[in-house]
């Protein structure tokens, strides 16, 4: 508002307004802006004073802020998408990315411009094979480009006085799930430990304390979902783990419940009821001795009572034999040498050809010169009635990949007697040889029984023709251990 004519030459018109959630603003004069724009905040009154031209402005006494006007500014979002590149910039509340096209978001930029309240925005990404990256400021790239890596989760928050005036809401559209609920002000949005890509993003600025955006279309009321993983402790214990929230915030707000069930059945067997503990243990003694696929289930619950369940399927074929019976079966063949075998090929290759392959392939596993280390392990496991992933088998790689898929590999320092042991001797991270662990000497040294090795440290260790007891260390190129299906 302003004066006109002679009055405008003699006086200044000063005015101020109280605004919802802010209070009394500072004084404006002679047509200057007073109040707010872009904040959806109503002006609730107006105070007007006329003072002689050139006199000091009215006192700020009673004003809650010094500035007369605050511009909410505009929020901009831009995503770098698989097979597309950088998309066009979109504004607050508009979807950035794609849905229904199975394309990953690889990086993104967010900015707030035009706001006269001091402050800005910062954000970070959880990226495939990297984890949580460092925070970046508005307008900067978070994520990666040119590396074909998916963004799996994000965090974002306003800074400075802008954070006192606004809440920042954001949500993500996740592979195989859809839209998650809205996160706000630094909370994590997305997933961890699920290898799931973010496909789209949506950001909204909301006046401080205002209602959250509509949750229409959301597949869950939770804004961040953890995954479930498991490993082995010893020969018979599954260790279930909920993916860590490290770097995601709010870890204390989550609780977990662990259970298992047979696939296709509704009955759940609780392993650990609701608690903040992220791990639980399940031994095969608590499972039925029945071959089949089982679901290991983790339910997560946030501080608002919202829940979400994740599961991982495992195949289990309980053995009737024990680890000692397997070791005994292998030890009986120590001293066997293929060069002394009066028949063609090895005894293990002939068994594999007759009992497993049965001439279904145009290859004779019982012929001379055929490497037999895996077939020897298959033979001993058959004698002991012990089952294992990918077995019986004629090659090491098939055992390795089956064990990886079934979650039955353990690190080189965690191998126990009765496990299988795989070696990588050429450094390509693929197995070259296999044996059975007879004794754990220490965390770096094992006593093994191996087929088609050498009975000394000289000569070929993976095609030496002997069944021999060997002592192996980490330095010998141990790749991993494999846990058979012991009951």
Describe the structure.
Strands 13, 14, 15, 17, 21 and 23 form a 6-stranded mixed sheet that branches. Strands 31-36-32-33-34-35 form a 6-stranded antiparallel sheet. Strands 8, 9, 10, 12 and 16 form a 5-stranded antiparallel sheet that branches. Helix 3 (323-331) packs across helix 5 (373-384). Strand 18 (166-174) and strand 19 (178-179) form a beta hairpin. The chain has 4 domains: 5-71, no CATH class; 74-224, no CATH class; 227-316, Immunoglobulin-like; 323-482, endopeptidase fold (from Nostoc punctiforme), CATH 3.90.1720.10. The protein is elongated. The protein is built from 6 helices and 36 strands. It is mainly β and 487 residues long. The model has no long low-confidence stretch (mean pLDDT 90).
Throw out a few tags for this protein.
single chain, 487 residues, mainly beta, Immunoglobulin-like, 4 domains, six-stranded mixed beta sheet, 39% strand
Q: What is the number of helices?
A: 6
The proportion of residues forming helix, as a percent range, comes to 10-25%
Q: How many strand segments?
A: 36
CATH class of the largest domain: Alpha Beta
CATH topology of the largest domain, what is it called?
endopeptidase fold (from Nostoc punctiforme)
Structural class: mainly beta
Mean pLDDT: 90
Strand content: 35-45%
CATH architecture of the largest domain: Alpha-Beta Complex
How many discrete domains? 4
Gyration radius, in Å: 33 Å
Overall 3D shape: elongated
- Ends distance: 85 Å
Q: Profile the largest sheet.
A: 6 strands, mixed
**CATH evolutionary superfamily of the largest domain:** endopeptidase domain like (from Nostoc punctiforme)
Contiguous runs where pLDDT drops below 50 for at least 5 residues: none
């Amino acid at each position: 508002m302003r004066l006109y004519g002679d009055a405008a030459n003699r006086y200044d018109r000063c005015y101020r307004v109280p605004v919802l959630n802010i209070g009394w603003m500072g004084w404006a004069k002679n047509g200057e802006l007073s109040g707010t724009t872009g904040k959806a905040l109503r002006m609730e009154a107006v105070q007007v004073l006329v003072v002689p031209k050139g006199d000091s402005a009215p006192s700020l006494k009673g004003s809650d802020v010094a500035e007369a006007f605050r511009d909410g500014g505009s929020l901009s979002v831009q995503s770098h998408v698989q097979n597309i590149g950088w998309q066009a910039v979109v504004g607050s509340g508009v979807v950035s990315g794609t849905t229904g096209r199975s394309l990953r978001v690889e990086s993104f930029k967010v900015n707030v411009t035009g706001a006269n309240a001091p402050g800005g925005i910062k954000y970070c990404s959880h990226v495939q094979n990297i984890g949580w990256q460092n925070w970046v400021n508005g307008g900067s790239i978070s994520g990666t480009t040119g590396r074909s890596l998916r963004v799996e989760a994000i965090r974002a928050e306003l800074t400075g006085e802008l954070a006192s005036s606004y809440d920042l809401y954001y949500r993500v559209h996740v592979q195989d799930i859809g839209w998650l609920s809205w996160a706000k002000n630094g909370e994590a949005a997305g997933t961890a430990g699920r290898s799931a890509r973010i496909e789209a993003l949506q950001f909204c600025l909301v006046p401080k304390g205002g209602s959250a955006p509509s949750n229409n279309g959301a597949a869950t009321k939770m804004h961040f979902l953890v995954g479930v993983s498991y490993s082995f402790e010893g020969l018979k214990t599954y260790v279930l783990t909920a993916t860590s929230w490290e770097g995601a915030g709010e870890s204390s707000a989550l609780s977990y419940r662990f259970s298992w069930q047979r696939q296709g059945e509704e009955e759940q067997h609780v392993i650990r009821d609701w608690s903040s503990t992220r791990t639980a243990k399940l031994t095969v003694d608590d499972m039925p001795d029945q071959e089949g696929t089982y679901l290991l289930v983790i339910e997560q619950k946030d501080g608002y009572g919202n829940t979400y369940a994740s599961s991982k399927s495992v195949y289990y074929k309980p053995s009737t034999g024990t680890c000692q019976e397997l070791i005994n079966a292998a030890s009986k063949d120590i001293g066997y040498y293929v060069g002394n075998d009066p028949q063609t090929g090895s005894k293990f290759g002939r068994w594999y050809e007759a009992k497993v392959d049965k001439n279904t392939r145009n290859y004779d596993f019982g012929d001379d010169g055929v490497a037999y280390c895996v077939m020897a392990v298959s033979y001993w496991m058959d004698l002991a009635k012990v089952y294992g992933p990918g077995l019986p088998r004629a090659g090491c790689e098939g055992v390795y990949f089956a064990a990886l898929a079934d979650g039955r590999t353990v690190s080189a320092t965690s191998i126990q007697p009765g496990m299988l042991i795989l070696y990588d001797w050429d450094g390509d991270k693929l197995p070259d040889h296999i044996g059975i662990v007879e004794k754990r000497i220490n965390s770096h040294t094992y006593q093994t029984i191996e087929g088609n090795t050498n009975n000394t440290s000289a000569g070929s260790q993976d095609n030496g023709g002997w069944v021999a007891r060997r002592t192996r260390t980490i330095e010998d190129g141990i790749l991993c251990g494999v846990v058979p299906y012991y009951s």
